[in-house]
Amino acid sequence: MIIVGERLNGQFGDVEQAIKQKDESIIKDLVDAQVEAGSDYLDVNVGTAVPSREKADAMVWMVETIQKFTDVPLAIDSPIDEVLKVGVEACEHPPLINSAQADPEELNDYIQLAMKHDASLIALTMDEDGVPNDVAKRVELAGNIVVAAMEAGMPFDRLFIDVVALPVRATQAQPGIVLEAISQLQGIADPSPHFIIGLSNVSQGAVKRSLINRTYLVMCMAMGLDAAILDPMDEELMDALITTELLLNKQIYSDSFLNAYRSSKRRG
Ligand code: THG
Fold first, then answer.
1. pLDDT confidence of 267, banded at 50, 70, 90?
2. Could you point out which of 29, 72, 75, 178 has its C-alpha 20 to 30 Å from the C-alpha of 227?
3. What is the value of pTM for the model shown?
4. 117-134 pLDDT, tens digit each
5. How many domains does the chain have?
6. CA 200 / ligand 1 centre spacing (Å)
């Protein structure tokens, strides 16, 4: 499982404060904890901590600050073209670009950006009409994404298709639709692209968030999800993730399988 740590996001009060006050110690603590917990990438999103015209500067500050404390690659997360591009430029290691929508122009622009930086790319199965309500449209958009990557010569192991998880509290049929889309997309290309979601979206506004998140993660992994943006500091969530990998025969069983996975992920 490819783990993208979600916590360096200005949506969270502590990170919002860090951005506003340029407080490096808050950033360092979240970097250390997420790296220790096994993150393969750290998502970087300025959220709404600063007004739009200051978001590009805030992104560069976050990227430069995080890189003082870790070599783990970053997932540069912004819907604003300029903020995303300055974030990618500031990266010392090839990042994960988060994200492109499936409209041909934006998709091709971001595929080129990824190729230029040896980066990976998250492409969303949504377009100018928004997030599709059904499985068929998500699968169709994923097809467009795969064709665009193929035509640009982008290796599929650097392509992450995001089937876009939505809050169960708002639209109760959506989690099942996402599961079905993940299932139908297995085998779309060989070698396969990765399949990713922003896991915490599913529990937004709900109670028992951690329980909802870990239950849904297990279901998605059973369908073929192999990457997720999540809170790696949620220990019960990580236990469920590791146990699911074991039950899917992706980890060797030993009595210490939880510890074995955690030490195999730990960086020096
Ligand atoms: N796909 C991709 N990128 C993404 C998402 C996605 N990036 C952002 C988001 N979705 C994933 N990250 C988060 C981060 C925080 C929350 C959800 C997803 C979250 N925040 C709290 C809330 O909204 O209730 C607020 C913070 C708090 O708890 O104080 O849940 O889908 N490619």
1. low
2. 29
3. 0.98
4. 999 999 999 999 999 999
5. 1
6. 6
